[in-house]
Amino acid sequence: MGRKGLNVLVAGLRKLPPSSRRPKLFARAVKTAFARERSKAQGEVSVVFLPRDKMRALNRQFLGHDHDTDVISFEHDILPVTPAGERPVGDIYISSWMAVRQAKQLGHGVLHEALSLAVHGALHLLGHDDTAPRQKALMFRRQDEILAKLER
Fold it and tell me: Which of 95, 98, 136, 147 is the most exposed place for a label (fewest CB within 10 A)?
């Protein structure tokens, strides 16, 4: 299918350093994750970069956690009457502040970290969970495979 049925919208890139503002690459990362998992989803996925305060508020409001987090994904319920190309598949919110912070801590670039978070969020939309150690290991293995494919 080539992921033509999946439209990825990217917003909030101004919150990242200029060298990391690559909307087409973020779209490709999400589409690659969906293709890797053999998803037949059609519609829209939004990737939104937020400043620290807005991300923390989102975490508090929807997950009940009053602390910083790097990525939050929300899967949308799809109404059967919505045309396939217009269906909202889900939203991926990424903390630009955490992306910069984690990139420094892990010793790689902000672009790499932000792409990792976009892929991680996409995997959550696809049903992956990282709460149990075994699930987390599988999810991070898939994430690394997808990132390696992007870097080829």
Answer: 136
Residues of the chain with pLDDT under 70: 1-4, 78-80, 82-86
DSSP conformation letters of 63-127: I---S--SEEEEEPPPPTTS-GGG-EEEEEEEEHHHHHHHHHHHTS-HHHHHHHHHHHHHHHHTT
Write the burial class of residue 26 (CB in 10 Å: 0-12 exposed, 13-18 middle, 19+ buried): buried
> Residue 76: is it exposed, middle or buried by C-beta count within 10 angstroms (0-12/13-18/19+)?
middle
Q: Both tokens of residue 103?
A: 């990139």
Give the separation between CA 152 and CA 140, rounded to whole angstroms: 19
pLDDT in tens, 56-87: 999 999 999 999 999 999 998 766 676 666 67
C-beta atoms surrounding 38 within 10 Å: 8
- Whether the CB-CB separation of 147 and 119 falls below 8 Å is answered with yes
d(CA 129, CA 139): 7
Longest Cα separation, the chain: 47
